[in-house]
Structure formats: C-alpha cells, structure tokens
Write a structure and sequence with these properties.
This protein has 151 residues and is mainly alpha-helical. It has helices at 2-9, 13-21, 49-58, 85-97.
Length: 151
C-alpha cells in the first residue's frame, strides 16, 4: 500500500515519512510520544536532560558521509541470518503491523534518492538465542557504507 502510494505520488522517503508521522510546520517533532517530563522532580538532575530535549525536538540525526554511494541492489544478508530467517520475518511483520517499521518494495530502491539498504547481521551458531535482536549488527558497527563510524 505505501509502496504504491510512493510510486504514484513520486514522494521521496523523507517527505513520505514526515507525512506518516503527522509532522507539520507547527509541530515538526518526529515522535509525538516523546515529551519533556517537566512534572518529574528528577528531571532537573537528569544527566542527559539536554541531549534528551534535543532528540525530542530534532530526532536522532545520524552522521552521513558527504555523498551517498549509489546502491542499485540490496546487499546479501550474512549467511548465518538464513538460519534465523523465520524469526526475523516474524518480528519484521509484527513491527510492521504495529506501525513501528516501514517496509517498502525493493524496486523503489532505484526511485528513491539517498536510500541505503542495510543487511541483516551475523547470527550466532549453536543453541544461541535466535530472537530478532540477536540478528542485528553489533552497536559498534556501521549499518551501511554511507554511515560514519562512531568508533
């Protein structure tokens, strides 16, 4: 449904996401559920208060490389992710149904500017937990070739 809307309207991904989130000139917050907890006594002493306020007002802003490397096709997933594919697909569908994720047709990759597909990361072998969070890349790795590493 969303993929067809993007095809018909020609919207680029940032404009489409703003539309979905209900962002407007009067309220440009990307996540309306996040608020500054002014009534909380602990708020004034919260160590990350300024950072939290910035995220609420401006969202999390990733660090990108100066120019996006063209990506004509999605990268292959790590071989070990194939073993956990059913778990991954189930969790993706669950998050899609709850409007937490936006999943679009892969054919849109050629139409959308500055979009990079990220692969599923390595999944542990053996009797390791195959929950969805285990199939993601470690926090210290960049998710794609256009993201700047933070150490």
């Amino acid at each position: 449904m969303f993929s067809e809307f993007i095809r018909r309207t020609g919207l680029q991904l940032p404009e489409f996401v703003r539309l979905l989130r209900g962002e407007s000139a009067s309220d440009s917050r990307s996540n309306k559920a996040l608020e500054v907890p002014k009534c909380s006594a602990a708020w004034n002493n919260f160590r990350y208060r300024m950072r939290w306020q910035h995220i609420i007002r401006h969202a999390v802003i990733p660090s990108w490389k100066p120019s996006f490397k063209p990506q004509p096709a999605a990268p292959p997933n790590h071989g070990s992710a194939k073993r956990a594919l059913n778990v991954i697909v189930k969790q993706l569908r669950k998050c899609l149904d709850s409007n937490r994720y936006l999943i679009l047709d892969i054919e849109l990759l050629l139409l959308l500017r500055n979009v990079t597909c990220s692969l599923f990361g390595e999944v542990q072998n053996g009797d390791a937990d195959l929950s969805f969070s285990r199939a993601l890349l470690p926090a210290w790795q960049v998710v794609n070739d256009n993201t700047v590493s933070r150490g």
